[in-house]
Amino acid sequence: MIHHLPVSPATVVETVSRDSPPVLTVQPGDTVVLESLDSGGHLERQTFPGEDRPRMFTPRRGHCLTGPVAVDGARPGDVLAVHFSAIDPGPWGWTASGGADSWLNHRLGLGEGHGGHLLWEVDTSAGLARSHLGYAVPLAPFLGVVGVACDVDGELSTVPPRPESGGNMDCRDLVAGSTLFLPVNVPGALLTAGDGHAAQGHGEVGGTAIECPMTTTMALDVVVDPPLRTVHALTPTARLTLGFDTDLNTATAAALDAMVTWMESLLSVTRAEALALSSAAVDLHVTQVANQTWGVHASLGHEALLRG
After folding, report:
1. What is the pLDDT, as a whole number, of residue 112?
2. Which residues are bridge partners to 84 per DSSP?
3. Which is the most buried residue in 101, 106, 227, 291, by most CB within 10 A?
4. Smallest Cα–Cα separation from 35: which of 14, 77, 62, 64?
5. How far is residue 81's CA from residue 78's CA, in Å, rounded to a whole number?
6. CA atoms 4, 10, 12, 18: torsion sign
7. At what angle do helices 248-267 and 271-281 cross, to 10 degrees?
8. Low pLDDT (below 50) residues in the chain
9. Taking Cα atoms as reference points, which of 284, 259, 286, 260 lies closest to residue 274?
10. What are the pLDDT digits (tens) for 131-143?
11. Each residue of 247-291: pLDDT tens digit?
């Protein structure tokens, strides 16, 4: 079954909550064509960098996300598999940097009153996003936010990613062809998604990527016996494990711990041997620094370890 979920005031949220009623319920294995606005929820494209255009939510409290989507039969203890078969950006995007009260902006001398803006034309036929400054970057579209509900009371901010639910991970490796695995915490999982990025560097160092509308085709399934019960992924090029914490060391250790556990099972080796192999073949990346918590992902390339 293929479901189409368009953007409307009835299908978007700007916080995440286990109490938000699903806007769509699907069966395991179904496909959802999910539309999303840019992270700011702009209803109209900007005509110059930084222009304030009408938004879905005013005032804005978080990312403009589409959902939640319930998957029938998903239960706590399961893992939701989200397979991205197509991720298609809209024709324009924006990037903002500096100006916010963060430790990194102050460290760079770009605290309050020192923000900058870019406006991008997204040319899918050429595979490029072109900024108003004349510089272009190759397109590598993905969704910055893909997450499930947490089993806690109240509305949660969309800004920090969470180890138990994913969310605002900003992992640029989750391109089309990837499958993301998210722990299920509440019946139905209650998936929300959005924050489309036409392109982004590892780290999202300015606080935003090329923020754009997106149409994402994703298949949703339930895994009852996964190799890991933490956030992890299979991409076209690698296996990924992700860690999130306000402390960089803790986020790094969480990502590596999950990768070592995965390699133990995958390769039938001891934990110490898995760590030794990791030292030879696993890459660590700072996923993002922009979301009130550190994100780190460990990456094991599909061709990084050869037998024989």
Report:
1. 83
2. 218
3. 291
4. 64
5. 10
6. negative
7. 110
8. none
9. 260
10. 999 999 999 999 9
11. 999 999 999 999 999 999 999 999 999 999 999 999 999 999 989
